[in-house]
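Q: What structure does this chain adopt?
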Amino acid sequence: MYVAVMTYLGFGIVTLFGYFRDFLRAVGVEKRSIAQEREEQKDFVPLYQDFENFYTRNLYMRVRDSWNRPVCSLPGPVFDLMERVSDDYNWTFRLTGRTIHNAINMGSYNYLGFAENNVDFLKTVAAKTQQYGVGVCSTRQEIGTLSIHEELEKLVANFLKVESAMTFGMGFAVNSMNIPAIVGKGGLILSDELNHTSLILGARLSGATIRVFKHNNMHSLEKMLKEAVCSGQPRSHRPWKKILIMVEGIYSMEGSVLRLPEIIALKKKYKAYLYVDEAHSIGAVGPSGRGVTELFNVNPSDVDVMMGTFTKSFGAAGGYIAGKKDLVDYLRGHSHSAVYASAMSPPVTEQIIRAMKCIMGNDGSTEGIRRVRQLAENTRYFRARLKEMGFIIYGNDDSPVVPILLYMPGKVVAFAREMLERKIGVVVVGFPATPITEARARFCLSASHTRDMLNQVLHHMNEVGDNLCLKFSRLKYSSCPDLCDDTDLDLGS
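A:
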């Protein structure tokens, strides 16, 4: 209760100061630095929403330096940042010319470490670039389908153990452009309340009725399914043409894993369809990196639409839709992303192929499975140590996404700045991206993080947590946890 009260109080004080500063701007004491409506357009519909503008200029600008930091190196386990400063309270930035070298990267989605520049690993990518170039300059349905595109789609289907798959050049568009082709007017979408924006946009564009169930709450989902089946469509009470359940494998802000076996049971009971977004889970969970179906040991055919992206675990770009051959063949002719978007770049395609072959062991090595196991080991170790220190963290123990609750707005920016001073790059998130009382820092583990790197991060986390009073857990913990475990798990066998 104390933390919640102080969080609301913090937002309240900042908001009051915001109104006071707006008054100073109105009377000309303080300079206006943000875009505003022209006087001759005052009778038009406003171009800038008043409260959104208020929040941006009076709250976000105070902490803007914690986001959009320019990176000038490979986003591997360590990276280089360009130092910048502001002379006008974060309205503008200027580069100092100094580079912050070898900061530990705890924010990128580089789960398996395939965002790399090792020449030996990238030989095939270089060869395909020389053969095909870097762009296709056409859509897949015209003259943009290359042999490596077809090779990738067969490989994805084999990897996921489904009948067929198709790939796209942009992960966000996989959801936003394919969902309208799968369900439309007269259909019902049951969406988890914490689904990604791309899923929400795709649902809205579809024209289907959308109902939102509580996050990972099977009682809420079953209640909506039962009502949908019993009552049908509003007013007419006709049966829904299609009921589609939309969920994610790992929720990127919560670190939680969906309850797949229970959702499949409900889907079968009420004759609904299931759409699973595995953007963060494919490659990152499961004994061999095949995602949540492997993690829960369920039949992939029980998931009607399997979606995933190549931007995280595979160190590339784009995404895929996989499932039955009839579904994929239908989408090839009806998906806006397939018909109108440019085909995937050849070097990106080859990067995905070489990463996936590595995970599957088709390259003749055990490097891929070593990375999958290392990620799992890093995830369990990092989560366990944070709990020992007294931090409140969200998510499943198998999830490499580790949100740490900071709560108060002032502590969010203080945490980000303090960690950067210690050469650790972190991602912090606050309202409106999270509930107002649940601001957090989000850590993303990688197989390329060494035990020494994690111990260094944990050491600084322990100090910063004490200095900023971030250890909100009521569980007992050691004030000086042993962070010097130099033994690494032997993953070569």
